[in-house]
Amino acid sequence: MNNFDIIIIGSGPGGYVAAIRCTQLGFKVALVEKYSSLGGTCLHVGCIPSKTLLDASELYEKAMYNFKDLGIEIIQPQINFSRMVQRKCEVVEQTSKGINYLMEKNKITVFHGVGTFKSYKELEIKNAEGNIEILQSKYFIIATGSKPINLPFTQIDKERIITSTEALNLKEIPNRLLVIGGGVIGLELGSVYKRLGSEVTVIEYSDRLIPTMDGGVSKELLKVMKKKGVKFSLSTEVKNIIREANKVIVKASDKNGKDMLFEGDYCLVAVGRKPYTENLGLENVGIDIDEIGRIKVNNQLQTNIQNIYAIGDVVRGPMLAHKAEEEGILVAEQLAGQKPHIDYALIPNVVYTWPEVSGVGKTEEQLQQEGYKYKIGQFPMRALGRSRASGDTDGFVKILADQETDEVLGIHIIGARAADLIADAVTLLEYRASAEDIARMSHAHPTYAEAIKEAALAATENRAIHF
Ligand code: FAD
Ligand code: NAD
């Protein structure tokens, strides 16, 4: 009874999606999750709760600052923060129930408990009551995800010095929130609290925000967020974070080594995440990890132990839910004898600030480093009828195309609904469209997507129509 074809450890987007695909392909599958509910980081303390708070706070901001201009007079809106947080919990709970339903429908056996390898064929499951069960399987897929990185000199006390997990569950809106790290989490959660009334200061080590995305969109985001009142201290090295009663002091230095001091009542540490392999018993089977703790895998996502695979945040590559999902499907299909493929260069990135930021393919910095001859087509959102109608005029679409062949190499967007627009960009790059191809496709009017066509026109002989 405790014998399976495939056991998957971890029920995040990597693990539960892999489980479904494996059963669709006819395998007998078990899913092991240490927590009492399924969904992993993404559902419980990541993508879904952060977007729930981002959407709610964005509506509040619009009601506060934009409605009047749109001709909507309302009584001053009030924030009911505990309701906002409660609704977020309800969304998470409903979605988790949805995953339970999918597990039942697909006849996937779910075990709740910590999974530890005893051998390359046996996994021990220890549940919250301390009861132990041993499962056997032909194959295993490790999908145990990641945890926040801490700074070596800091004690995360989870009260005032917090990670994203606590920031999604605060009891009050901070008066002054210090955010260490101007990456995705820092900017998304910084935006939530800025909109709800906190004074937010982002302290970033690099000289720019979201360093892995295109420099142009990163610069524009800095400009827009500054306009909204978020404070930034770039090129700043944090030296210490000290809790003093209800205050947090951050000691830092600027690029010239000059001391700096920041004071807040909460400090969110968002300096990246690290793979999570605690208690997995990797040493019991001799699974190799790399210098930063990621499980080493080959192109088939196979570890050095032949029947054990690993996917998602616990292996190399971007720490994104959709990347984890693709990898889960790839492993399932491979085990079924198929020949699937993931083009890692075409995994899109999104930052859910407002305006949203998204990108796929090469950034301008990458093209320069790799010595490409490229051309740029850029089109500002403010020149679109759709943007003026909605009042979302910040941002632009930037298309990077090969100077000689006209093939599109990268599409970078900052603007309203950039998160949704990037799906079209992925399709265009997947089918290796040229800028001319895009320029000749009909785009519905008035839509934000017209900015993609106009940027393509701009890239081919600078012939944008509306700018
Ligand atoms: P996880 O989702 O981390 O799941 C791993 C699971 O394994 C966990 O449930 C854990 O309890 C379980 N586990 C670990 N060890 C064991 C064990 N030994 N036995 C049993 N179970 C175990 N990505 C996006 O693409 N879009 C977003 O908008 C986005 N927003 C984010 C916002 C925040 C605040 C954070 C923190 C992350 C966000 N991410 C986002 C990243 C995304 O959450 C991760 O990339 C994704 O969850 C990784 O999926 P995974 O399946 O690899 O691991
Ligand atoms: P990140 O890598 O996006 O950003 C971390 C930032 O912290 C970087 O800009 C880095 O330069 C800065 N930093 C590092 N050390 C520092 C220091 N000592 N002082 C000041 N700044 C410092 O990491 P994150 O924001 O913690 O997010 C973790 C992961 O979660 C990301 O890899 C991301 O892929 C994923 N995530 C994705 C989304 C999304 O897709 N919308 C949202 C949230 C999180």
Structure report:
By secondary structure, the chain is an alpha/beta fold. The protein has three domains: 217 residues, 3-Layer(bba) Sandwich (FAD/NAD(P)-binding domain), CATH 3.50.50; 111 residues, FAD/NAD(P)-binding domain, CATH 3.50.50.60; 105 residues, FAD/NAD-linked reductase, C-terminal dimerisation domain (Enolase-like, domain 1, 2-Layer Sandwich). Strand 10, helix 8 and strand 11 form a beta-alpha-beta unit. Helix 3 packs antiparallel against helix 5. The protein binds flavin-adenine dinucleotide and nicotinamide-adenine-dinucleotide. The site of nicotinamide-adenine-dinucleotide has 25 residues, from helix 7 and strand 18.
In short:
The chain is an alpha/beta fold.
Features:
alpha/beta, FAD/NAD(P)-binding domain, Enolase-like, domain 1, 3 domains, seven-stranded mixed sheet, 25% strand, binds flavin-adenine dinucleotide, binds nicotinamide-adenine-dinucleotide
Secondary-structure arrangement, i.e. CATH architecture of the largest domain = 3-Layer(bba) Sandwich
Quick check: average pLDDT? 97
- SS-based class: alpha/beta
- What is the helix tally? 15
Q: Describe the sheet with the most strands.
A: 7 strands, mixed
Whole-angstrom Rg: 24 Å
Strand fraction? 25-35%
Form type: globular
Which stretches are low in confidence, meaning pLDDT under 50 for 5 or more residues running?
none
Write down the domain tally: 3
